[in-house]
Amino acid sequence: MTTEELNNAGKHLEEIRNRTLEGYRLAAGILYLDRHRLLLLYLLIIIPALVGVWLGSSDPSVFMYLTLAERVLQLIFFYLVTDYWISQLRKHSVREGSFISFFITGMAFWLIFAVPAGLGFFLNVPQLVKFLSVLGLIAAIYLGFKYFFYFFPLIAGERNWRIAFRIAQDIVQQDWLLPVKAQLAPFGFMSLAVIITTLPSPDGREVFFDYLSAIVSGVSWLLSSYLSLAFAMEHLSEKSWRDYGLDPYRRGRLATLSVQGPDWLTSILRPRAGLLMLGFSVILFNIHQVIWRSTPPTPEITVQSIEVSDKKITLHLHLRDERHHFRGFRPINFNLAGKSGKVISNYPEAAYFDSREEDYRFIFPQGDTEVTLTLEFKLDRSRDDILSLEDLYLWYRRARLLHLDLPALEGGSRSSPVEEGFQEGKKQKVRNKKGKKKGK
């Protein structure tokens, strides 16, 4: 390669770098100019999150429908923002953009991520399916990067999908990190905002803070939409720019838009700010986890009776929660351990009301104030060894709740002390495997 070719390549790389830097300024500019419209448009992307808090349901089907609705509204938001600015830049109408083409493509890209992720990480499927799902997810990430800017040509009026994908690929080839740069700061900002709003109520018992988290959850999509649009405007080829009938005085028009945004807004859109916010988010997340693990459950707990058999303890609990109505309560967090926290049984094998067929370990009904819950724990001990345990407590995560005084109950029923802050005067009964009381 000659010296002249090296110089030309260096100038080309410098031009691409300058365009990327201008992309942050341009995103800040058009975002600032849209600030009044966003008061209404922002509601589109947070409605599903707000509805989810209002419903207060942990049902997977409800989550699926809300996630689908969120994606649909996100695409509508993105189309409205992009189409508006393309129309502002267009000097003459060459062709009209197609919402249908954009929407179908956007949903397809979402599905190639969502399906492998659901099969690989959330659903109970064979290991081979999980492995294939991971491979599918890797392929989806690659395609998502390669055609990240598919939206611009489709909304600008491109009817041919193949050409639209080629244009999107040409944009990314100028800087393979553009998709990361478009999402890093938005994700960091959203992560920090969400973790701050959840710190006062780490387990979700206070609905007010859940609503705050839902409100800030759309920040990532909002900021990444404007960054993606700005990068597409800056890196689109001159030929495509002219083909779509956009302003012939491109550099001057984009420069005019870039100076509209305040410097502080430009600063928080850059990757450095995103990394800084992610760092703070990690620190606060660790604090959040410490608080979450040590927070007692929302209901007052009374042990009604205990059944002991070989390798199993069954606890019948009365739960009362008049304030929070079991928001944020998950029976899977119960465990049996010694007074110092040495775990004897990590989690209940079952949690049910009347029928063992209905397992409420992960999804607990909300809205009631009093329920009777049965927990079954498995222990690798015989019945006699279990009854000899003098230092056995019921824990909720790392919060110690109740002392289960099994040796004192071997000879019959009697009152047992309860940890301060929970129910007083409970009675414990030990039953054999058939449920028959032992004599006094």
Radius of gyration from the CA trace? Answer: 29 Å
Question: Largest beta sheet, briefly?
Answer: 5 strands, mixed
Taken as a percent bin, the fraction of beta residues is 5-15%
How many DSSP-defined strands? Answer: 11
Strand order, main sheet: write it out.
5-6-2-1-11
Task: Return the average pLDDT rounded to an integer.
Answer: 84
**How many helix segments?**
16
Structural class: alpha+beta
**How far apart are the termini?**
97 Å
Secondary-structure element string = HHHHHHHHHHHHHHEEEEEEHEEHEEE
Note poorly predicted spans: 411-440
The percent range for helix content is: 55-70%
| Cα shape | elongated
Short description:
This protein is α+β, with helices and mostly antiparallel strands. It contains 16 helices and eleven strands.
Question: What's the arrangement of secondary structure elements?
Answer:
Layout: H1 3-33, H2 35-55, H3 60-89, H4 99-122, H5 127-146, H6 151-156, H7 161-174, H8 178-198, H9 207-216, H10 219-235, H11 238-243, H12 250-258, H13 263-268, H14 271-294, E1 300-309, E2 312-320, E3 334-337, E4 343-345, E5 350-352, E6 370-378, H15 383-387, E7 393-396, E8 399-403, H16 406-409, E9 414-415, E10 427-428, E11 430-431
Parallel strand pairs: 1-11
Antiparallel strand pairs: 1-2, 2-6, 3-4, 3-7, 5-6, 7-8, 9-10
